[in-house]
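Reading a protein record of the kind used here takes only a little practice. The record below shows the convention in full.

——
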Amino acid sequence: MKSMPAAKVICIITNAHGNNDMRLYHKLGKSLAKIARVYILGAKGFGSLTENWQEDKEYGEASNPEAKPIRLIVSGLNPYLRLFGLYRQTLKLHPDLVICVEPLTMFVGLLLKRKIGCKLIYDAHEYYASAHGEKYGFLLNQIVSGIYSLAEHFLQEKMDFTLAVNEDIFRRFNLKVPEAIKSEDTIPVLPPKKKSALRAHYGIVCPNYPTVDIFKDDLDGCNVGKLLPDTEFDTIYLGGLTEERGILKLLQVVDILRLKYPMFKALFVGPFRSEAFKQKFFAFLLDHNLNSNVFWREAVPPDKVCPILRQVKVGLSVLHPACKRYNKAVPLKVLEYLAVGIPVVANDFPQLKEIIARNHLGYCVPFHKQDIANAIDKLLQMPEAERKELAERSHKLIREHYLWTRVEPILLSAVNYTMNS
């Protein structure tokens, strides 16, 4: 009997994210588990080597669409010390391919490549240089972000392949799609306005689109559904709660709208990024007597998002424009709102206007509380027939253009190409 070839091993390593991260586990991990044995090594999350080892799964030539990534936790007092644990644990797994999630993990990847000859992919899904620079004042911001950007580019050039979350990052790294994997699935990218000084490297655009789980309609096990089963909310914000993401501005908007709508209900679903901001959030509610208008729940699993959104009239994503990196991205929450068919109030950033304003699916407004409140007010007064028609168009747009199922084929092609080249 002919023996089955050994399965390829892919390790996704992160020193900051949890191994249950939405993009890493539910998208990259689950997709890649169809063609290889996948491990996600993270700073926190679920699982250990002994609890999740899947010896009964068949990998290799006969792909297993039901296979799931194996999640491991790597300990460390801080993200820097955790790099040593990532190296040691990943080395034990002897991967054929390592996907580095942050710039620092590229150091780990390069050491592993030197030791065992594995291929390397950089998952460029955030503006790390800008985010790092924002911690400092204006002058230091420019200096720090510039140095960080140079270091990131230096490391990225040593990768075998790069996954860019959007066209801007694709052009910033001067990437090009290999001819061998170009197809109708490839997400097109406009050529840069000026020639880059960087040497071209292989990569693809790998957007953070919603998975089909967004269409699941089951509230079982969802804390919002259990605690507020019959509540209809006027607005919702999904995602991490920080001042930079406009949360205090949205609370000010609630304070305005409850004058016209005394029973106005705003739902915030997501984790607080710091205990200090959590205290600031609830202090605002207390000071402005908003405890009966604002509801908060922790983050929920991706397959529970849809039923929660069906309890809401308007979706919100109004990020602070002082964070320049925000105006280059389309937040996942916006696509999730539209997938379920609820209108959106978002920033007046170019990429958001292209989706929302152009398709008449809500309003893109300046970062001013009265403008945001006016937009929400208009959507709350929308006739039911018009709301249903908007929902149908919104649902169709996401189904046809913005689902992870569109990204997966080119991702698998890119990974197979990298491992076999």
User: Anything to note?
Assistant: The mean pLDDT is 85.
